[in-house]
Amino acid sequence: MKVLIADDHHVVRRGLLFFLKTQKDIEVVGEAVNGKEAVEMAGQLQPDIVLMDLVMPEMDGIQATRKIKEQYPDMIVLMLTSFSDRDHVVPAMEAGAAGYQLKDIEPDELVASLRSLMRGENTLHPKATSELAKGPVAPAPHTINLLTPREQEVLAELTKGKSNREIASALFVTEKTVKTHISNIFAKLEVQDRTQAALYAVKHGLTEPGK
């Protein structure tokens, strides 16, 4: 996979570059020092994933993510930041970030997150998920009533950041069945990916099955 690093701190960029270069399946194709440069380099280099800082000069990570997703819908953005509060997580995900991780993440876990995103899975730091769950939620729209009890269980597990295999194990079903349920969930909730589905669930207080 090709990764573009966007962070205004030289030490952070150097650290990420040093570790990611040791991974045989990862190629760091560029480094951006602010959000504006991240958008420009995303267009020039066409990375699979943009590893995006949240607070940067000229253009922050949320604005940059929104512009990247508008221009390149299939490009994946993983937010890597120090902020785990709801006021930062929700806007980032609504802008189109496919994942949200904190800078205290272990290097091996970061690589696992990148690989998960390439498989189409969501990746949310537990602190971010916890902060989202604490905030006020909007009433669940009528669309949630379209989900079957099993689909609600799958959605609840998906919101925890679990892979299809982990969901299958937790619910004692096959991975193929989980994939079918997830496809149905996307269609019924009118979302495009796992992260959007997780955000929908958290925003509407659907993080537990049956709610």
UniProtKB/TrEMBL annotation:
**Looking at the keywords, is DNA repair present?**
no
Asked whether the UniProt record includes Lipid metabolism among its keywords, one would answer no
Q: Report keywords, A-Z.
A: DNA-binding, Phosphoprotein, Transcription, Transcription regulation
Database matches in Gene3D superfamilies: 3.40.50.2300
Under the heading SMART domains, the entry gives: HTH_LUXR, REC
Tell me one Pfam family matched here. Answer: GerE
Taking every annotated instance into account, which residue ranges of this chain make up the domain HTH luxR-type? 140-205
4-aspartylphosphate PTM positions read 53
Gene Ontology biological-process entries:
phosphorelay signal transduction system; regulation of DNA-templated transcription
Q: What is this protein called?
A: Response regulator protein VraR
Q: From which source organism is this entry? A: Planococcus massiliensis
